[in-house]
């Protein structure tokens, strides 16, 4: 989605990111935005392309179960600049391992569900 140069409203940002306006405000209050969200002369929030991209990334982290405190730490490291690249990488590698473990558990659970469905399918077919 290409945005206008002076940003989009909070409703438009919510639509572009797939999160609620409440979540956008929360991310701002929780210190998760890289930079303060711009304000129009009316004091309404104006989200830039960069803000939208960042919220999309934060959303991915949340979907994978990253705690807000860890997201905040990651955001702080990004703000500190290139000297923290190794620390950011380490944080993401650790999170990736946690996500992989979750995937393994979910895959095993899905196999159990599929097995049970197969049993029911056989029962229904033989009735």
Describe, in plain words, how this protein is organized in 3D.
The protein has helices at residues 10-17, 21-29, 49-63, 68-80, 85-126, and strands at 38-39, 45-46. The protein is mainly α. The chain has five helices and two strands. It starts with 9 loop residues before the first helix and ends with a helix. The chain has one domain: Multidrug-efflux Transporter Regulator, Chain: A, Domain 2 (Orthogonal Bundle). The protein has a two-stranded antiparallel ribbon with strand order 1-2.
Summarize the structure.
Helices cover 69% and strands 3% of the residues. The protein has 127 residues and is mainly α. The chain has one domain (10-126): Multidrug-efflux Transporter Regulator, Chain: A, Domain 2 (Orthogonal Bundle).
Proportion in helices: 55-70%
Strand order of the largest sheet: 1-2
- Helix-strand string: HHEEHHH
Q: In CATH, what is the class?
A: Mainly Alpha
SS class: mainly alpha
| Tally of DSSP helical segments | 5
What attributes does this structure have?
single chain; 127 residues; mainly alpha; Multidrug-efflux Transporter Regulator, Chain: A, Domain 2; 5 helices; 2 strands; 69% helix; 3% strand
Topology:
Layout: H1 10-17, H2 21-29, E1 38-39, E2 45-46, H3 49-63, H4 68-80, H5 85-126
């Amino acid at each position: 989605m290409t945005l206008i140069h002076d940003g989009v409203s909070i409703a438009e940002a919510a639509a572009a990111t797939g999160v609620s306006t409440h979540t956008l405000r929360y991310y701002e209050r929780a210190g998760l935005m890289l930079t303060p969200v711009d304000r129009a002369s009316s004091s309404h929030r104006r989200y830039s392309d960069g803000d939208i991209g960042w919220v999309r990334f934060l959303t991915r982290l949340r979907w994978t179960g990253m705690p807000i405190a860890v997201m905040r730490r990651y955001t702080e490291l990004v703000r500190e600049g290139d000297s923290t690249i190794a620390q950011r990488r380490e944080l993401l590698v650790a999170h990736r391992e946690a996500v992989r473990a979750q995937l393994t558990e979910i895959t095993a659970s899905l196999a159990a569900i599929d097995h049970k469905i197969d049993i029911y399918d056989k029962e229904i077919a033989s009735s």
